[in-house]
Amino acid sequence: MKLNRREFVKWMAASTGAAAVAGCAGMGGSSAGRVVVIGGGYGGATAARYIRLWAPDVDVTLVERNDTFVSCPISNLVLGGNTQMSNITMGYGGLRARGVRVVRGEAVAVDAPAKQVRLADGSSLAYDRVIVSPGIDFIYDQIPGLKSAEAQNRVPHAWKAGPQTVTLRKQLEAMRDGGVFVFHVPMAPYRCPPGPYERVCQVADYLKRDKPRSKIIVLDSNPDIVSKKGLFLASWNGLYKGMIDYRPNSELADVDVKGMTVKLTFDSVKGDVLNVVPPHRAGDIAFKTGLITANQRWCGIDWTTCESVAVKGVHVLGDATLSAPAMPKSASMANQHGKICAASVIALLKGQPVHPEPVIMNTCYSFVDGRSAMHVTSVHTYDPAQKTLVPVKGAGGLSDKASELEGTYAWGWARNIWGDALG
Amino acid sequence: MCRRAVIGRWCAVFALAAGVAVPAMAQDSAYARNLASTCFTCHGTDGRSVGGVPPSLAGQDKNYLLQAMKDFKAGKRPATLMHQQAKGYTDQQLELIAGYFAGAKPGPAAAAPAAR
């Protein structure tokens, strides 16, 4: 016997009496509450999915401007020619099948007093709780040469997986053997701490295979390699010996797009392909909603609920948050923020207590070539005294070395987090 | 314990349905669920792993899972990263996690759909 929801409610009423009808009414008609999620990346998609999984009587609407989800994790492998865009591009059909209303559109404002989200097409969505998961946007103000869309396409960031990933891959394919790839890394905090150094490995892997006389110059704003330093150096000084010129403390002044030159405070570096990742801040909608509380860039939240410390009833997830101590801006973290948020939003809508001490875990893999990867992991638990999530002492760590075994686990991680957010 | 976890969840459902305050047991089961969900990122939602790597945990024996996690934590069982992660949880939290996965229904994993 297969029951649809309405039939199930009737069956419940018949089997367990009137009390069950009251409790389950939301499954048929009126709901336990309306949640609007802005942004269908790792954080927003996970939160939307888990609210439906854990409380099917809550209405969930997800607002996302893109038709497909393109994963940033694994996207560096596209640059290395080690996978295809089609392998990191997925749809929102799984969320729809779970009863999430997916609206393709752009949220332009959150009217917190009126509890409404306004979309670019003029329509509005009413909510009881809103979850803002906008990811990052780039700060171009300090890079005059990259103001125009044309310049940004000529010197891509490729730090949001999508069209720019394809652009950068094509530029690398078109580069001559013996060419120079110049890559600029912004000052931390930025999305995916080991990501820039994985990108260096992936581009090196491609160049070594197809254009072995080419060179890579890494202009890092940071004073040193930010993540997995020893592991990356083992690969740069081993597999890719002689190919990579790493220059720390390389503060960006501007980019001369015509002259294909990256201008630093005290130096200029010319290249055949330039890849400049500008500094980050929380996505635009966070600014328009008044959620920015730190360094004019990030959204402070209460880590037990992911609720904004600035605007009540508004929850913020993922890379846009002011990171807790030693917490990376990563897909793993956004996925786990999504679960803290889902559990607390459900509890708040139903008048139940929120669990006061959440625990979350980060796992990030980086590929050094087409097959071998290494990890960094950490566990973060809520400390009521400090009122934030703090890393658990003695837990977490790194791989001893990159391996093919961990390469298989890295793909397993990817398939599972994709399913956990979108399946 | 597998049965107890399942019964616990149903008690919570009926308590809500009857409109009474959520009992402590339901609080524990929500906490176990939240803790276990930190493992879902790699092991799949409810421990049903897409492609089986890393392994599915849904429906496995509670004592087996708990012992494995305690062995990882003590460094007695070789691992790539489980020894580093298990150290992040108290024994009581590991017990709740093991109980959750033992009570989860094994079955096909929910993979992300291809783009339309």
Write the layout of secondary structure elements.
The complex is a heterodimer of chains A (423) and B (116).
Chain A: H1 5-16, H2 18-28, E1 33-38, H3 42-54, E2 58-64, E3 69-70, H4 75-79, E4 89-90, H5 93-97, E5 101-104, E6 107-111, E7 116-119, E8 124-126, E9 129-132, E10 136-138, H6 149-154, H7 163-174, E11 180-185, H8 195-210, E12 215-220, H9 229-236, E13 244-247, E14 252-256, E15 261-264, E16 268-270, E17 273-276, E18 280-282, H10 284-288, E19 292-294, E20 298-299, E21 301-302, E22 307-308, E23 314-316, H11 331-350, E24 359-367, E25 373-383, E26 388-391, E27 397-398, H12 404-422
Parallel strand pairs in A: 1-2, 1-9, 2-5, 9-23, 11-12, 11-17, 12-13
Antiparallel strand pairs in A: 3-4, 6-7, 7-8, 10-18, 14-15, 15-16, 19-20, 21-22, 24-25, 25-26, 25-27
Chain B: H1 2-17, H2 24-43, H3 62-73, H4 82-86, H5 91-103
Helix pairs in contact in B: 1-5, 2-5, 3-5
Describe the overall structure.
The complex is a heterodimer of chains A (423) and B (116). Chain A is an alpha/beta fold and 423 residues long. Among the domains of chain A are: 1-30, no CATH class; 144-277, FAD/NAD(P)-binding domain. Chain A contains twelve helices and 27 strands. Chain A has a five-stranded parallel β-sheet, with helices on one face. A four-stranded parallel β-sheet of chain A has the order 13-12-11-17, covered by helices on one side. In chain A, strands 24, 25, 26 and 27 form a four-stranded antiparallel β-sheet that branches. In chain A, β15 (261-264) and β16 form a beta hairpin. Chain A is globular. The model of chain A is unreliable at 1-28 (pLDDT under 50). Chain B has 116 residues and is mostly helical. Chain B has one domain: Cytochrome c-like domain (Cytochrome Bc1 Complex, Chain D, domain 2). Chain B has five helices and no strands. Residues 1-22 of chain B have low confidence and may be disordered. The interface between A and B is large, with 64 and 43 residues.
